[in-house]
Fold:
Amino acid sequence: MKPLKLTMCAFGSYAGEEVLDFAKLGENGLYLITGETGSGKTTIFDAISYALFGTASGRARNSYKMLRSDYAERRAKTYVELTFSSRGNLYAIRRDIIPHIARKTGEVTSCTDSVALTLSDGTVISRNRDADAKILDVIGLDRDQFAQIVMIAQNDFLRFLQSGTDDRVKILRRIFGTGALKFFQEILKIKAREKDEQRKALLRDFQKYELDPYKREEQFAQWERQVKADESAFQEIDANLNANEEKTKIFAAQIAVAERIAKTFTDLAAQRKALDEHISKQDEMNAVSEQKVRGETALRKIMPFAEKAGEADKALVSASSEFEKAKTDEREAERILTGARKTLADLPPLDSAQEAFDNLRVLWEQTENRLKKLAELKADYDGIVQKQTKFDALNTELAEIEKTILALPSVGEAQAAFDGLKSKLAALTGKQIILGKLQGGFAAILVKQNELAKEQSEFESLTEQYRSARAKYDEMYELFLRGQAGVLSATLATGKPCPVCGSTEHPAPAIPPAEDVSASKLKKLNDDAEKVKGKLDHKAAACASAQTETATLAERLLHDSTELFDGASLQTIGVLLTDSTEQVSAAVSESVAKKKSDEKALSELILQTENTARRKEELTPQGAALQAEIATQKIRFLKDLREFLPNAGFDTAGADLEKLLAETKSSSEKLTEKKNKDQSSLATIKNNFDNAAQALAESELKLVSARILADERESRVKEREILAAAARNSYQGVLAENGFADAESYAAALITEEELAALTKAAAGYAENGKLIRREIARLESETADKAEVDLEKLNSHADELKQNTGKLRAERDETKARLDNTARILKELKRSAASLVKIEKEYAALKGLSDTANGRLDFETYTQTAYFERVLRAANLRLKVMSQNRYVLLRRQEGGDGRKRTGLEIEVADSYTGRSRSANSLSGGESFMASLSLALGLSDVVQQTAGGIHLDAMFIDEGFGSLDAEVLELSVRTLSDMAGGSRIVGIISHVLELRERIDKQVRVDKTPGGSKIRLVV
Structure:
């Protein structure tokens, strides 16, 4: 793809239409886009990218509101049009940004865009989606690929060099189309996950029934035994239910017969009552029949003649009215025709007025052209004066900078003083840290002493508790021993030997003690005492431990504080630590404040020194360039001005121009006023003549039409009179023939078709209803002749008992069947799941191993991309070696540091000066630019080699050259020039002055208060 012509209107920093003809820059070579900061250099790249892809070259400028020019008038059209060639064919594409403006506020509320892509055969594509697809097909790159390979935006320039493997994988995926491998990896991951889900689902089937899938056979056998038992029980219940249902059917038949007989007796009584009501309506139906006969005669025999007579009278009245209107229209048409002939005859001649206006317009156009040229000269003069003012201000600023440089203090002396302060602060901080540690140790000792006192207090309390518990036990044990004789005497009986003395006589047995002293109670007291004893022993150990720890901490603290407090004791060190800490903290705070103040002053001094030097370096060449530019523009301006004032000089040019402009503007205004007035008069004359001629023709046509219409309507009136008389005679004859004295009696008898149908239906329905009732009575009497009514209540009671029994049996059967079906279903499902589990676990193991391999740290896609990536690095190193003078070589790192991250596309730089490799992120600004530029060129080479349909005839680079020294800048320009030596063009954006001197072909962007302008320097 090679751009040939770019047109921008109300786009970015350009208010009006600006045209950039790339063809004038030649078929190949290097050209520079230069201008002031903010003038709109990058906007040219934005326009090319927007025309091709609908987005700007930089992602930060992609909203429609940012692309539309703030300098443009509110309703100005915003568009970009690009003509370009690709593979020998010409294409043109135009995109318009359409603002939507609120009616009330006049503000732009939103924007949309439109596109028109003209192909080499003249076909135009106007749908965004189709145009984008065709651009992708023609160029072979999408927007992201284009931004990485062809048009490298300022913010995206270092992204490929400094990104990691994950970001480079995405970039190379778009460029080399390795997405299919990524898709394959994802498919493997998804398949393994799906197979694992299937395996887990099968395991959940077993977990749902709390069954170990690997010990399932025992449970399967138990469920099979239960299935057989439930099948036997189900058959027995089902047989009982069938017998009960047969009895139910017999009772149901008997009840149906009884209900039918009862209904027959009820229907007979109802029909006899209906017959009595029918007979009572006979007189009413006779009157209905008489009304029907007379109404039918009026409706069918007389009404057609009455309607025909009425319609004939109406037609006669209508025809008479239309005839009178036609005569009135004829008289009005004759009057209008006479007026139109008079108006046309009174109009003035047209040819002389047209000739005078044409002469005036020629004079006005000459004056307008003169005024336009003078206005352009005034704008050029103002621009030169503005630049002269800027040049004077620049010289003044340079003089002030020289004074500032001489007045600034020495940075070296300030740095030395600051370094001494930092050393002092470091020593104080170290002492503060030591004191903090000692204070921490002393605080720990105090904590331990408090803990020891607490432990000792608790030990004394437990000692007292143990003594009390042991005393209670000893007292109870003594009572227990004394009471054993009384306990034994309770078991003695006369004639039975004593277990102690053997006597069978017991004359004075011992009396049992008043208090119950059992062995269990004694044991409980002993257990309580032992529990307290255990706590006492534990607490004694804790006291000993705390005492040892306290002594150890004290010994360590005194040893560590010897350097600061030699001879101090544990009783005095606390006070010493507090006093020393306060003193050192105060000194540190004072030093920190002074360091902060001095550091700020040093930074400001360094920044001021660097800014002043940098500003001087920037202003010196700017002043020289501005001085040369002013001289050139003055020569061109005076040449153009002397076409109007042959002896004009620049010193008096402003006043001379003002005078010429005022005179020419006055003449133009007078001529414009007269032209507008004469043009309006001429238009009025033309309009009056056309209107009069048209009115005459229309009047003549209307008169002819009115006369014809009046004749037609007079004939129609005579016809309607004859027809109306005949219709009235027929109507009077029919009335007499059918027994009606006059029209009033006819009207009284007349009924509608609906009323006639209702009367007919009522008469017929009455007769038919009587027949039906009598016939139904005869039938019902025949059916009940030999029958008697049955006791339905008794039959229904027996049926309900059978129904309840049937319900119980059915519920029992359903419960058994549900349990049987559920057990059989579970057994069947789990057997099927067991068979599937064996198969799926084998498949899952194979898939998981393959997925883990494909999606590891060096996955399939990244592995494939390493081959492309190494080719890119080899191509990039051909340029980088030249630009870095054989110092740097880009390498692909073979091993990654973080085992958790994907690796394979990391870049490191081999430095021939050190003989070692290091990260690409460690390069300086200028070195990073060289490496990034080399990568971009290498990527472009490899894309064209690997994608046969892509041929890149152009490359655009936005900024970055300002970070290069003179020698490296020369090597970079030479590299780009060699690259553009064939049929390729290379455009770069930069404000670096050396490039303006080095590159002959230039696109200069001039910033003005009303928007930027483009100039070509070839």
Summary: The longest strand covers residues 89-101. The two ends are 22 Å apart (CA to CA).
